[in-house]
Amino acid sequence: MLKKILSILVLLSVTFSLAGAQDTTVLFQVVSSEPIVAHGSDWDSRYTDPGAVVYHDGQFHMFRNGFKDWPASVEIGYVTSDDGVSWTKVGDEPIMMTKDVSYAKIAALASSVLVRDDGTWVMYFYTWNDRNGPFAKGAIGRATAPAPSGPWTPDIAPVLEAGEKGAWDELQVAVPSVVKTDDGYVMYYTGANKAQVGQMGRATSADGITWVKDDEPVFSATGNTGDFDSLAIYQPSVVKTENGWVMLYKGISNRNYRSLPNGLALSEDGIHWTRYSDNPVLTVDIIAEGDGLWFTNLLYQDSTYYLFFELGINRQTNIYLATHKGALAN
Predict the structure, then answer these.
(1) Distance (Å) of CA 34 to CA 82, 133, 282
(2) What are phi and psi of 303, to 5 degrees?
(3) DSSP state of 206
(4) Among 225-239, 243-257, 289-303, which stretch is predicted with the lowest mean pLDDT?
(5) pLDDT tens digits along 179-203
(6) DSSP for residue 299
(7) What are the φ/ψ torsions at residue 207 (nearest 5 degrees)?
(8) Fewest CB within 10 A of the end CB: N or C in the chain?
(9) pTM reported for the whole predicted model
(10) For residues 238 and 185, what is the distance between their CA atoms, to the nearest angstrom?
(11) What's the sign of the alpha-carbon dihedral 28, 31, 33, 38?
């Protein structure tokens, strides 16, 4: 009888353990509780985020934003990696600075990089021109360089600006995520109106310089109470895979912007989007000590999704990594 009771207890223990493991299963697995790229001691002495990340010629390249305060001047540093996990800083000085962008009143932040067929490196960034929360006034700019380490030269004027009065993006255009396709270039960006309602916009270009906006946003908040993205959405990071398009984005359900969750949306054509069935996929408690979840960036390479995220701990931020291998089924 005692053996039977003990067997039942063991079976129950295993069953509950497996159930608990299933309940805590997450799509993205954190690579390490330690940052993969840490802030520095000079121009990036307090904060750093994974501004723009690209895989090119067998190597990962990150153009990270570093800053001492916020909102304040942001400088862009360059780091490289062979595997996306272990990173090496290239030089101690930033490769581009906010003061290099004539129309950036407070900050210029990198958010997307690609390499043209002729070998030219192209960075898309956005400016922060007032102190109006996550929906500050600003524009989207472009800079080019012959090599990732520079020298980087910003265009004289923005490539995308806020819409006219009454437009859905009349207050802000920001956080560009640019994808090169067989037909040219596609840009996804945050647009916001004067009520600070953020939505995702889409623009297309034949040359990456002159852009034409879609008339309406391509992705918006749900409007449903209780959803993590009920009020507004912003900060798109879009990748194109063999199975379709994937967008990482932040959702807003209240006006506490410190630790906003991230969700995914999927699309077959890059225009019509469907939310991932198990959103959100990233929250501040993905690492126990986290007290703020800020900028995120998604990269897809060799059937693996690399989710780089800026996590705050003790009023400083560093860059961490979570990954998912395989297709995303909705």
Answers:
(1) 18, 29, 17
(2) 65, 15
(3) S
(4) 243-257
(5) 999 999 999 999 999 999 999 999 9
(6) E
(7) -125, 0
(8) N
(9) 0.92
(10) 12
(11) negative
